[in-house]
Write a structure and sequence with these properties.
Layout (H helix, E strand, L loop, with lengths): L1 E5 L6 E5 L5 E3 L15 H7 L26 E5 L3 H6 L9 E4 L5 E2 L14 E2 L2 E7 L15 E8 L2 E2 H5 L6 H4 L5 E2 L4 E3 L10 E6 L2 E7 L7 H11 L7 E3 L22 E6 L3 E6 L2
Parallel strand pairs: 4-15, 6-11
Antiparallel strand pairs: 1-2, 1-12, 2-3, 4-5, 7-10, 8-9, 8-15, 9-12, 13-14, 13-16, 16-17
Length: 280
């Protein structure tokens, strides 16, 4: 099942994607309460009973919003591809590098990305993100996948100066407004046979910059869930972004390439759709 949220910002409506990739509205058919998340496995089970083809079709040019609601945490993993660590000139980590992106950084998959004032080192990062489906605390790697409800795409946009040159707290360079485009949809885990073998890519102004496969992750999803759930309780709807392959702007030699006004980023992951953002 592919789940979307569509409409104007802060006024999104829940919908499903049919076999022809048309958005079908759930308005008046299925509504969430204020404390429920579409990432909750219980909610997904209820949606499975709905006949998608009976739902009204939505305009094809409708805006897509962040596909997950009520996200309490957006946790990211740094340097989780060995070849990306090498291009960044950093040691391959021996345990996951964890940082947070502010919830206020979240934006729709095709919304504009806004450069911070005086930014000169903003960068791109296509990443597989997974969604937690039930309360998760102190789980083992063997049971960890039972706590995943599905997957989506995150562009972990990063201001490198504020990430690396203003102390050691990466979150500062990762949390600017619009720096976490998420979507286009939330794909339930039954549709993804192997999340550890998905091709991912990113283009800048039509030129391929990143190509990789999730098989190259240093720490896989069960390892990340077990590690994270030891020191933080995860809740339905929490999103964990798993790191990026090589090809980020910071890694270009001899001169790094960073985002500028007017640039267009296009990115996607096999079976999870694609995003497109204009830099303003």
């Amino acid at each position: 099942m592919k789940i979307v949220r569509f409409g104007m910002q802060m006024q999104e409506t829940l919908g499903l994607l049919d076999d022809q990739n048309k958005v079908r509205s759930l308005k008046g058919v299925f509504d969430l309460s204020n404390n429920e998340s579409i990432g909750d496995q219980i909610i997904i089970e209820k949606l499975n009973n709905i006949d998608i083809n009976s739902l009204p079709v939505v305009d094809s040019d409708v805006r897509l919003g962040v596909p997950i609601n009520n996200i309490s945490k957006l946790i990211c993993i740094g340097l989780n591809y060995s070849d990306h660590a090498e291009e960044a000139g950093m040691a391959i980590p021996t345990e996951p590098i964890v940082f947070m992106k502010s919830i206020s950084a979240l934006t729709g998959p095709n919304d504009d990305v806004e450069l911070p004032k005086d930014s000169s080192k903003s960068d791109w990062e296509v990443e597989l993100a997974f969604v937690i489906g039930k309360k998760t605390k102190n789980v083992t790697e063997a049971e960890a996948m039972d706590y995943v409800s599905g997957y989506t795409i995150c562009n972990d946009v990063s201001e490198r100066e504020w990430q690396l040159e203003h102390g050691t707290q990466w979150s500062k360079g990762k949390s600017f407004d619009t720096f976490a485009p998420l979507g286009p949809y939330f794909v339930t885990k039954d549709e993804i046979k192997d999340p550890h073998n998905l091709n991912l890519w990113l283009k800048l102004n039509g030129k391929m910059m990143q190509e990789g496969n999730t098989s190259k992750m240093i720490f896989n999803i069960p390892q990340l869930i077990s590690y994270l759930s030891y020191f933080v309780t995860l809740y339905p709807g929490d999103v964990i972004s798993t790191g990026t392959p090589p090809g980020v702007g910071m890694g270009f030699k001899p001169s790094p390439v960073f985002l500028k006004k007017g640039d267009v980023m296009e990115l996607g992951i096999e079976n999870l759709g694609s995003q497109k953002q204009k830099v303003i």
